[in-house]
Specification:
Order of helices and strands of chain A: EEHEHEHE
Structural class of chain B: alpha+beta
Shape of chain B: globular
Mean pLDDT of chain A: 95
Mean pLDDT of chain B: 94
Number of strands of chain B: 5
Low-confidence stretches of chain B: none
Order of helices and strands of chain B: EHHEEHEE
Helix content of chain B: 25-40%
Distance between the termini of chain B: 22 Å
Structural class of chain A: alpha/beta
Strand order of the largest sheet of chain B: 1-2-3-5-4
Strand content of chain B: 25-35%
Shape of chain A: globular
CATH class of chain A: Alpha Beta
Radius of gyration of chain A: 12 Å
Oligomer: heterodimer
Number of domains of chain B: 1
Number of strands of chain A: 5
Largest sheet of chain B: 5 strands, antiparallel
CATH architecture of chain B: 2-Layer Sandwich
CATH superfamily of chain A: STAS domain
Number of domains of chain A: 1
Largest sheet of chain A: 5 strands, mixed
Helix content of chain A: 25-40%
Radius of gyration of chain B: 15 Å
CATH topology of chain A: Transcription Regulator spoIIAA
Number of helices of chain A: 3
CATH superfamily of chain B: Histidine kinase-like ATPase, C-terminal domain
Number of helices of chain B: 3
Chain lengths: 94, 134
């Protein structure tokens, strides 16, 4: 089960498993993000390169206007995936 | 444990169910489960998105042998494409030069202990192994 939503505080919350089938849902929701935002991974169990590609595209788009995503609460496995993908260089990860 | 899947992204969920069932039966740890799912998804989606048009089914076989997780994926009706020799994604490039393409195979090559590829008579065999922690 996967879900992506934007909370009242503007934080993007990902939960469940983000695979190649679900990545389009992330893209649709993130298309509405026009300024710097926090993405909370606390409830996310799994992400593959499809989800990473979407996040990379959003970060590139936001950077053109001086904005960026900040990623928080990554679990150990996802943090390792991000490190190997070199995403620790292109995202602020807390 | 093995199963055969149509060359369709809609089959990914069923491939995950095979992986989950295998992981439960073999009582794999969290790290192995993540890698198992990633190996299945990245190769499966790569075949569906970039494999031969009109190609055949995709067979996935999972095993634990000699203390290693073994993931074997066979693409029937394949065109030759060796994922072990694909150009590596440049993960150190600055943001404006980063490209998402190639990231899945790159991660598998870094995370798995071994990945081999054989192509014979229209069948592509990809075999990945990862030593399991005690």
């Amino acid at each position: 089960m996967f879900d992506v939503r934007i909370g009242d505080d503007g934080v993007v919350v990902l939960s469940g498993r983000c695979d190649a089938v679900q990545a389009d849902r992330v893209r649709e929701v993130m298309d509405g993000v026009r300024a710097s935002a926090v993405v909370d991974f606390k409830e996310l169990d799994y992400i593959s390169s499809a989800g990473l590609g979407v996040l990379l595209g959003v970060q590139k788009r936001l950077s053109e206007t001086g904005h960026r995503l900040t990623l928080v609460n990554l679990n150990h496995h996802i943090r390792e995936i991000f490190r190997i993908a070199g995403f620790d260089n292109v995202f602020e990860i807390r | 444990m093995q199963a055969t899947f149509r060359r369709d992204l809609g089959e990914l969920e069923r491939a995950f169910r095979l992986a989950d069932k295998f992981a439960r039966e073999r009582r794999l740890g969290e790290t192995a489960v993540y890698l198992l799912n990633l190996a299945v998804e990245e190769i499966f989606t790569n075949i569906v998105k970039h494999g031969a048009r009109g190609g055949g089914d995709i067979a996935i076989a999972l095993d634990v042998a000699g203390g290693e997780l073994v993931v074997e994926i066979v693409e029937h009706g394949a065109q030759p494409f060796d994922p072990t020799q694909a150009p590596e994604a440049d993960v150190r490039a600055p943001l404006d030069e980063r490209q998402p393409g190639g990231l899945g195979l790159y991660m598998l090559r870094k995370l798995m202990d071994d990945m081999t590829y054989e192509y014979t008579d229209g069948e592509a065999h990809i075999r990945m192994t990862k030593r399991l922690e005690d």
